Amino acid sequence: MLLIECPHCGPRDETEYHYGGQAGVPYPDDPSALSDREWAAYLFYRDNPAGAFTERWMHAGGCRKWFEAVRDTRTYAFESTRAAGRADGELGDGGGER
Q: What CATH number did the domain enclosing 55 receive?
């Protein structure tokens, strides 16, 4: 069992969460000005690092709030979590116990 630390509810089982993709992807300033290729790149292309990666998660089986987590993609260990929109210095314990 993998525990993920919700910044609002505390540690919960991974089955309570939904993955929301890469965090910090800015919405285009003028989406109507994008070509089909540029729009496809915005919608479908994301970073895929081996290591620490900041992601969006939603606690669907609990408070239903979105939050950001830093997860190591090689080990699946959560390094930290924070409420969506908080400063980088306000990270909580990421949980990740098995």
A: 3.30.2270.10
Closest CA to 82 of 72, 69, 95, 73: 69
CB 80 within 8 A of CB 30: no
**Alpha-carbon span 9 to 50, nearest angstrom:** 29
User: What gap in Å lies between CA 96 and CA 3, rounded to an integer?
Assistant: 5
Q: What is the Rg, in whole angstroms, of the alpha carbon atoms belonging to the chain? A: 15
> β-strand 10-13 against 3-6: which pairing, if any?
antiparallel
Counted domains in the chain: 1
Q: Is 76 part of a structural domain of the chain?
A: yes
Q: Look at residue 35 and tell me if it is in a domain.
A: no
Q: What are the 10-residue block averages of pLDDT along the chain, 98 residues in total?
A: 95 98 95 97 96 98 98 97 74 48
For residue 79, what are its two tokens? 């390094």
